Amino acid sequence: MAFQRIIEAILDGKEFTVYGDGTQTRDFTYVLDIVDGLIVAAGQGVIGNIYNLGGSIVASINNALQFVQEIARKSSRLSIKKIKKEM
Predict the structure, then answer these.
(1) Could you say which residues of the chain have pLDDT below 70?
(2) Helix (H, G, I), strand (E, B) or coil at 58
């Protein structure tokens, strides 16, 4: 969902909100890889087993934003929202 929001903000010339400082990381997994994994698990998996369908590519929100901006050759206005830490 992050990539969709980043791309829309850049293409529409709108502001993109970064929550926190952007250094938090995510495991971005291509949706068709998940679909393929589900099909294999449904056909060959063992009932009761747990299968991790996540990818292995981890990137920060800042890296994802920079990547999309480079491809689009456009940038987005950023809004940084600090996250309050609760005790």
Answers:
(1) 80-87
(2) strand
